[in-house]
Amino acid sequence: MQPGGGALSVTGDSMQRSNDMAAQIAGACEQQSRVTEEIARNTSDIRDLSKKALQASQHPAAVRAVARAGPAGGSFPRLSD
User: Cα(59)–Cα(66) distance, rounded to whole angstroms?
Assistant: First the structure.
């Protein structure tokens, strides 16, 4: 073995571990980014549904008419007057 060969081996192993950790961190960052985007979409959907619910609550006659008509598939009972 040449002088310093052990040090080169240790350095190479350290570099490999460092590269492996960097790859793991990059993967975790990508996953976190996807989750963050999904949370943003869900938050936007909730905001939109909340706005629609507020608008519907401000027009109770329209809500009653829709409730009386029932859904197209008839999955909930009709309201009586």
Answer: 11
Distance CA 71, CA 54 (A): 20
- Confidence (pTM): 0.54
Please report whether residue 77 resides in a domain: no
> Domains in the chain: how many in total?
1
Domain assignment present for residue 49? The answer is yes
SS (H, E, C) 17-50: HHHHHHHHHHHHHHHHHHHHHHHHHHHHHHHHHH
Q: What is the pLDDT of residues 49-59, one digit of tens each?
A: 998 888 878 87
